[in-house]
Design a protein that fits this description.
- With about 260 residues, the protein is an alpha/beta fold.
- The protein has helices at about 10-25, 40-50, 75-85, 105-120, 155-160, 180-185, 200-210, 240-255; strands at about 1-5, 30-35, 60, 65, 95, 125-130, 150-155, 175-180, 190-195, 225-230.
- The strands form two sheets. It has a seven-stranded parallel beta sheet with strand order 1-10-9-6-2-3-5, sandwiched between helices. Strands 4-8-7 form a three-stranded antiparallel beta sheet.
- The protein is globular and about 60 Å long.
- The two termini are about 25 Å apart.
- The structure holds fructose -6-phosphate.
Length: about 260
């Protein structure tokens, strides 16, 4: 894993946008996996600021969607992705995919979604946030490490964390459709972003703990191209914090004998 520790949202946005723009310009990134929530917002905003026409040709696949919220509900991930990604990056809405949490047959919808991702050639770079309980997507602790897109039940703690978007905690849906951990691992590259002290314990478990379904993000230790992008607060509990900082410095300055 490449662990990058930066000063704050501005630097995180610039770093993430730089990584994505480089991949888009070089033709390595044609399909972007997109997350909702607060963590990737700085990156979307930096991408909008540095917008280039090639961004408009990207395909995008969302990680997850609530069950039972109509697409037009402002808190549905359909709406969030449209506001934060499709509009800002000027993507063609026809190329932006979000699972349908109101489908009559949710299992069939998940299979359809997996097939659509495969037909697009898979995800080239998957953006991720991390829950305070270590979830990625909505793969809550105890999720199978090889899971595929499927319906899941949200944990009470996740519903409480997301209540800030809904006003009333009772309005947070109880179920979701989410890409599985196996689906996420299939992306050619992943970029996980975490900010703030509330994420420090989950980041420690994900990066330095054992690979375990009890911290779903730890499965990224098995990925060949995973970058973990942190602010100082989120990195606070890492035992090897200084080593990660030294390694990044060497990347910039070059290796010296
Ligand atoms: C969002 C998602 C979640 C969030 C996570 C962190 O599509 O799948 O895993 O990334 O809950 O949320 P924030 O970034 O709001 O702290």
């Amino acid at each position: 894993m490449r662990v990058v520790i930066l000063d704050g949202a501005g630097d995180i946005g610039a770093f993430g946008a730089g990584l994505i723009l480089d991949g888009v310009v070089r033709g390595r990134i044609r399909t972007l996996g997109v997350a909702t929530g607060s963590s990737p917002l700085a990156i979307y905003r930096a991408l909008a600021d540095q917008w280039i026409p090639a961004l408009a040709h990207l395909d995008a696949f969302a990680l997850d969607e609530y069950v039972g919220l109509p697409a037009e509900d402002p808190q549905s991930y359909h709406s969030v992705i449209r506001r934060e990604v499709t509009d800002r990056l000027r993507l063609d809405p026809a190329n932006v995919h979000v699972p349908d949490g109101c489908a009559a047959d949710l299992d069939a919808e998940c299979e359809r979604y997996e097939a659509a991702m495969a037909a697009a050639g898979g995800v080239d770079l998957q953006l991720l946030g991390i829950g305070r309980n270590g979830h990625i997507g909505f793969n809550e602790p105890s999720s199978s490490l090889s899971s595929r897109t499927r319906p899941k039940t949200l944990m009470a703690a996740t519903r409480r964390d997301n209540a800030r978007f809904f006003g009333d905690p009772d309005l947070v849906p109880r179920h979701c459709l989410t890409q599985g951990l196996g689906t996420i691992l299939d992306a050619a590259e992943v970029l996980l972003v975490a900010q703030g002290s509330g994420k420090a314990e989950a980041v420690r478990a994900a990066v330095e703990g054992p690979v375990s379904s009890m911290c779903p993000a730890s499965v990224l230790q098995l990925h060949r191209r995973a970058t973990i992008l942190l602010d100082e607060e989120a990195a606070r509990q890492l035992a090897l914090r200084q080593y990660y900082l030294d390694t990044e410095k060497n990347r910039i300055e070059g290796l010296r004998p």
